[in-house]
């Protein structure tokens, strides 16, 4: 089965017998994606740990996305941003708005999503920690939501980070990088995102982010350092793999079942920005494989996981190469939809989630349980009380996925908003606010507002100011912020307050 982006359409090509021959013509699932600027159309498809298909679109494309035949009032506008599509419920939504020319998505071991920009942040490359519901700077520096201003007030240094991203990025170090394997290292164009969670490369590279430096013809290495509730992405270590061929144009990179890294070479003497379609070389293209000889060991695990039993797929959740866990989750999800999954696998997954000492393995099991439709009240309670902040954060995100909470979940959310010591957890709560009805959101806002450490929650309240029904209560919450860096008067600069 294949998912294909061919702007303006998202296509699905079925192959149920897995013989690599399509079962029929492509099915149009969505249309309306933009293609005004053809070098930043929908790209970078990635299965999220929550069972959604994620993708990106770049800044100079205007899209109104919906199912074929849907009227305009049933479509969602997207310029630049991260979108996602649920393969079973056939739901589409914008996960986060903004970003410049994003090419590349990946999740780390804690389920945090990162995207890489081909051009961004004042002409320098950038890596963005993508927050659900976030609004991020874009190259056009325009088309923000009404509660966003393009230029932050100069009297509040650093406020732009809180306003547009709720995270911090070191634009210089996290962008172009430094000379690596050759003196030519290319500037600010980056394509592809891979957070290495394989088992071939040396252990010091595990969890690091790698991206192609388009004009530098090499792979840059970055580190996502925790900072507050987000990350500070910095260039670190030696860059890898220099290619001297001027037609080398690498587009993507992923680790495979053998732990080696595979990447695509467009192989084109023109790199971008040429509207003359006849000038493109359509007859070439390459795929490379990069293994680390000193540590390479042929995989002893079956790679045709579609031939594995459900019990074997559950066991793979503990494999050191995350490729196996991700693929096992997808196959279990497919079997659950087909009705061929035995019930006895759920106690096995539950055991991993409840007892494994590694929070990354617990998260793998939690994601699969949710994807299979077994995110019960008991599982939710366990997740929201987990000792690890990222597990608790994902307990929040998964509970709010269908935009409604049970009374027990709402009570747990209120407790976390008031008492949880983790900024990561409170940031997940802030993202969840926009998925909840007002009567559930306001008790959380009241509690979050009492924590002086959470200045980056302010964009949440600003956004709520744009909702007429919530504006009076939002102003009341803002009045309780006592930080001199965030006076209530600052909100008046945003032009969203009532005029009376």
Q: Which structural traits does this protein have?
A:
single chain; 500 residues; alpha+beta; 4-stranded antiparallel β-sheet; 25% helix
Q: Quick summary of this structure?
A:
The protein is an alpha+beta fold and 500 residues long.
Describe the structure.
This protein has 500 residues and is of the alpha+beta class. Among the domains are: 172-300, no CATH class; 303-373, no CATH class; 375-500. Helices cover 25% and strands 21% of the residues. The chain is built from 12 helices and 19 strands. A hairpin with a 5-residue loop joins strand 4 (43-47) and strand 5 (53-57). Helix 7 (389-399) packs parallel to helix 9. The protein is globular, with a radius of gyration of 23 Å. The chain starts with a strand and ends in a 22-residue tail after the last helix. 42% of the residues are buried.
* Oligomeric organization of the protein chains: single chain
- Average pLDDT score: 82
- Measured by DSSP, the beta-strand proportion falls in 15-25%
Quickly count the helices: 12
Low-confidence stretches: 120-125, 153-184, 482-500
Sheet with the most strands, sense and barrel status: 4 strands, antiparallel
Q: Can you count the beta strands?
A: 19
